[in-house]
Amino acid sequence: MTHNRVTLGGCLCGQVRFEIKGKIRDVVNCHCSMCQKLHGSFGAHTKAPKADITLTRDEGLAWYKSSDVARRGFCKNCGSSLFWEPFDYPDTGILAGSLDGPTGLKVMGHIFVGEKADFIEISDDYPQFDRSSDGQFTGDYR
Fold first, then answer.
1. What beta strand segments (E) does 1-142 contain?
2. Model confidence over 40-53: pLDDT tens digits?
3. Which terminus of the chain is less hemmed in, N or C, by CB atoms within 10 Å?
């Protein structure tokens, strides 16, 4: 499911703020090893078209090229994880926890469960994929 509205978000200290005009995808929990290092367990990601995201304050924004596929945006002041931006896709992943609530978003499923931390137990009935979902979630990449 997607939600069509203006959604606001930002980091813990306020040095990065953004708005999303239009649809955002429901949440996919990513259990990859990189998300574990960044978030302490898994990353809860929504996403939106890059063109629909406007930075309204970016004094703290920094980018880290985490792979040949994407870079990750974070606040260099407070350390908040904010974005997962693939180089070759029109959408940007947004950490759902960085959005101002209430969001109205729901969890859709789990990806990269083959890499999930051994202390995480997935006890819901949402779809699980050993690696990427390869476009099987509504609003997902193909």
1. 2-10, 16-25, 27-30, 43-49, 53-58, 61-65, 70-75, 81-86, 91-95, 107-111
2. 999 999 999 999 99
3. C
CA 77, CA 54: separation in Å to the nearest integer? Answer: 20
Binning pLDDT at 50, 70 and 90, where does residue 140 land?
Answer: low
pTM: 0.90
pLDDT above 90 (res 138): no
CA angle (97 as vertex; 129, 107 as ends), nearest 5: 35
Determine the residue type at 51. A
SS3 of 117, please?
coil
Gap between the Cα atoms of 25 and 1, Å rounded: 6
The closest of 103, 119, 104, 134 to 42, measured between CA atoms, is: 119
Asked if 56 and 96 count as a contact pair (C-beta separation under 8 A), the reply is: no
Residue 91: CB atoms within 10 A of its CB come to: 20
Comparing 44-48, 72-76, 88-92, 135-139, which segment has the lowest mean pLDDT?
A: 135-139
Residue 123 CB burial class (10 angstroms; 0-12, 13-18, ≥19): exposed
Instruction: Please report, as a single letter, which amino acid is at residue 96.
Output: A
